Amino acid sequence: MIKEHITKTDKHDNHINILCTDINIDATLIHQRQNERWIGVDRGAEVLLSYDITPTYMVGDFDSVDEGVKAELIEQGATILPEDKDLTDLDQALRWCDKNKFTSVNVYGATGGRLDHFMSAIELLKHPKRLEEKHSIRMIDDQNVLQMFDQGKYHITNHFDMKYVSFIQQSDICTIAIEGFKYNLKKQR
After folding, report:
1. pLDDT band at 149, cuts 50/70/90?
2. pTM: predicted TM-score of the whole model, two decimal places
3. pLDDT band for position 12 (50/70/90)?
4. If DSSP codes are grouped into helix, strand and coil, which group holds residue 57?
5. 3-state secondary structure 21-49
6. Gap between the Cα atoms of 73 and 60, Å rounded
7. What are the angstrom distances between the C-alpha of 111 and each of 139, 140, 176?
């Protein structure tokens, strides 16, 4: 279980949490942030309501919930997307975040379940506008915190009591220098 620490950035008005599913998510993570703003994506909306958390926004095609739950979510104002669409449910939620000026977003449950959904979620982290504007979007589960960084200098602090850190380049043009870790690098390509 991850002992999550709320960072200073997360306390600002521009922070929101997204729950896609509770697969690979310890309930403690949700309870620690129960008084914060949430978006329920597809089954995540049902899970949040089961924890007595009323999402700020609910969106999805809701193909992972039964018809009775879907009807209840519609009654509560969920935005229903068609099952056949060009955007994933999570992409639609992040676009809503962009439109509503949320630049600090923790996404829970994007790494559980289907690999195609996970790979699509990783691509959402690479959105050029979000990178240029230094949006902080983290994908979190019981074992991982994933975040994409654009060029620049960053100070990384372990807020999740995790033992390992990895840096993986996402473009052909990448130079990295790291210090203060077990293995430091000086401008490695």
Report:
1. confident
2. 0.84
3. low
4. strand
5. CCCCCCHHHHHHCCCCCEEEECHHHHHHH
6. 10
7. 7, 8, 26
